[in-house]
Amino acid sequence: MAQLPEFKEYEILEPVAANVTEQEETALQYPKRKLGRVSKLEKVVTTLFVIAALAIAVLTVRMTTAISKAEEAVSLIQIENVAQRDVVSKLEQEKNELSRTERVKEAAEKGGLEISDDNIRNVD
Asked: Who wins on pLDDT, 109 or 48?
């Protein structure tokens, strides 16, 4: 029959997690000690950078607002321009209708005038 392997006893060691917590505690304390070493000049420079970033953000919002207002004004002017062009084209059409040769002949005949085609001119 088969033989059983020999039974070996092993030593029980302390859990590894205990060492990890000690390392974590030192790691958590390290930034606190590091922040204590920051000089006043570094703090001032960092503060100035933060203030500059905030100022740039505010200026960006202001510029965007100013640009949108200018675009709105331009679009209103364009709308007025289109409306005025429509009025001008309607007036030109009415002028052309009123200055037709036939209309002028009809008005002359009603007034008792004799008109020949050579005497009629359109003036623009």
From this structure: 48
